[in-house]
Write a structure and sequence with these properties.
This protein is an all-alpha fold. Helices cover 73% and strands 0% of the residues. Helix 31 packs antiparallel against helix 32.
């Protein structure tokens, strides 16, 4: 009874807010003259005057019953009642509510039905059309998205149309069939490709879709046609910069053609970065110097220029460039500027070190206010070195970071651990963590990370020893209970103990979806399939996650719901297509990603 009362109260509050908004006029009764007024809605009254509401007793009861069902155990019935009420009243908020209920019930088809009904009732509503488009894309029904995509761009205000065209690749970013997505977008943009006012933006979007489909030649052709439509447009140049590669000289030709005019300094900077990526340092330096000559206040160009000059051992010029950067940004603090300052101070410190002026080198490092800034700069360098096969040089770089307090030492340690972990050097990461934990056994986070590295190494007894050490030292460290319980369940051993550990973790973190996932997994291992399915459904509803999707899909597959299992797995891949657990599950069941 208490549950019903709470639901009823929640529904009444929702309906009260809806009824108030529905019954009271505002300063501007309807901003969009093209959107029809709700059925039975009275003529607008004078400003501020209350009018009779269309929310009669029958409709109020229908909405109340719909909300109770939607929030209770019959969401399908609630959806039907709310959608019916939306059709009766023609109210956009009720159509949207019907879509939301369908989403919460994970029923894509129902959500699409409600969105289409909304679009039919309000054909000039871009919001309704956008819902239809996004749901079709989420359902991977790309071929059906052509008309909604056309409408989305057509319904955008003239001043927003180019932005609407440019945003299309983000809408289709998760499409599984990239070639089909590129074809669909190109068909939808046909009229805009031929329009001089929109041609550059449209061809840029087509190019980005082709590039996502691994059609580099097609993307390059789109960039060329976009630049032909408008030689000063930024989009085609940015696309060409993304394509630019020693194997694609034509892309650089498009960039150079733009640079020959009066380029935006930001695009010249992009060209300089592209040159740096292929280690064409003298040409990059030439572009940077052109930027600082044309726009002396363009701070980033001074920073990169100074860093390059340090590498080239042109110390006086490097020092002048870096000090100019510091002068420009020192009084304009932001997170990005702070990191830039850290890089500048680091480079100035290197210059002083090369001159054997060690006190000055230390003084520059002392100006770095946050150790994380220094770590971020050096960590990036270390990562680049590691990707070039120079992992040990990267580690040495991180070890050279200054330590002004015990916290700095820990930051350095974790930076090196993360570098090793990213490159799957688990033994080295484990050894570092062991050294750190030996210095401070009370640091349970370090010990926990060490346990996770032991698991990566296949040393499960050591992992269990470390996790039990954490539990003994810090009995409320719920991650340790969950990790140990899940490990036992995953190996299908000591299942009653695994369940107790996971339940203990839930006592400290009730409702945590990842621990709930562990509980569902141990129930599955114990043969309680229906209970496992119920628990995993709850976990996935709370937190859609690739790992939870892997477990939920496996249980669905085993109980015979194979079509739904594949649907959940596909959703998981959209969330994280590199998740090891999910990929291993698909491989085990011989399901193609």
């Amino acid at each position: 009874m208490k549950r019903v009362s709470r639901l009823a109260l929640a529904a009444v509050l929702v309906l009260s807010a809806w009824a108030t908004a529905y019954a009271q006029t505002t300063d501007d009764d309807d901003d969009d003259d093209d959107v029809p007024a709700p059925v039975s809605r009275p003529e607008p009254a004078e400003k501020g005057q209350l009018v009779a509401s269309a929310l009669d007793g029958d409709l109020f009861y229908q909405l109340l019953l719909g909300e109770l069902n939607a929030r209770g155990s019959e969401p399908a019935a609630g959806y039907a009642l709310i959608l019916d009420a939306a059709r009766k009243t023609n109210d956009p908020s009720l159509y949207q509510r019907a879509v939301d209920i369908a989403f919460q019930s994970r029923s894509g088809e129902s959500a699409l039905q409600a969105a289409r009904a909304w679009k039919s009732a309000h054909p000039q509503s871009r919001e309704a059309n956008r819902y239809v488009l996004q749901i079709l894309l989420a359902l991977n029904r790309l071929a059906e998205s052509i008309e909604p995509l056309k409408s989305d761009i057509a319904l955008a205000e003239a001043k927003d149309r180019l932005a609407a065209i440019a945003s299309v690749p983000r809408l289709f970013a998760r499409a599984s069939d990239k070639k089909l997505a590129a074809s669909v977008v190109e068909q939808a943009l046909t009229e805009h490709l031929a329009n001089p006012a929109t041609g550059a933006a449209a061809w840029t979007t087509v190019g980005r879709m082709r590039l996502a489909a691994a059609d580099t030649a097609g993307a390059l052709e789109a960039a060329r046609r976009g630049q032909a439509a408008n030689g000063r447009a930024e989009g085609p140049v940015l696309l060409a910069l993304d394509i630019m590669d020693p194997k694609q000289p034509a892309a650089e030709a498009l960039v150079k053609k733009y640079i020959e005019g009066k380029p935006l300094p930001e695009l010249r900077m992009g060209y300089a970065r592209a040159l740096l990526d292929v280690q064409r340092y003298p040409e990059a330096l030439q572009q940077l110097q052109a930027i600082t000559a044309e726009r002396p206040e363009f701070a980033e160009a001074w920073l990169v220029q100074g860093t390059l000059l340090v590498q080239d051992n042109q110390l006086p010029a490097a020092e002048a460039a870096l000090k100019k950067y510091v002068e420009l940004v020192a009084d304009r603090r932001s997170e990005d500027r702070s990191r830039g300052l850290a890089q500048a101070y680091l480079s100035l410190s290197q210059i002083a070190e090369k001159r054997k002026d060690y006190p000055l080198a230390g003084a520059w490092l002392d100006k770095i206010e946050n150790s994380q800034d220094l770590v971020a700069a050096q960590n990036r360098r270390a990562s680049i070195l590691a990707r070039q096969g120079k992992l040990e040089e990267g580690r040495k770089l991180l070890r050279g970071l200054p330590e002004r307090n015990p916290g700095d030492a820990r930051v350095k340690l974790m930076a090196e651990v993360n570098l090793l972990r990213e490159h799957k050097q688990y033994k080295g990461a484990y050894d570092l963590l062991a050294q750190g934990a030996a210095k401070d056994p009370r640091d349970t986070d370090l010990v926990y990370d060490q346990a996770m590295m032991a698991e990566k190494l296949g040393n499960l007894p050591e992992m269990e020893r470390l996790l039990r050490q954490i539990i003994a030292a810090k009995p409320d460290f719920h991650h340790a209970y969950n990790a140990l319980g899940f490990s036992l369940a995953d190996r299908n051993v000591r299942l009653p103990e695994a369940k107790q550990l996971i339940q203990k973790a839930l006592e400290f973190a009730p409702g945590d979806p990842f621990i709930t996932d562990s509980l569902g997994w141990v129930e599955f291992r114990m043969g309680n399939r229906e209970e496992a399915l119920k628990i995993l459904e709850s976990a996935y509803k709370t937190r859609p996650d690739a790992e939870i999707a892997a477990h939920l899909g496996e249980v669905l597959w085993v109980v015979g719901q194979r079509e739904r299992a594949q649907s959940i797995w596909k959703e998981g891949l959209l969330l994280a297509n590199d998740n090891e657990t999910l990929l291993e599950t698909l491989k085990r069941f011989k399901v193609k990603p």
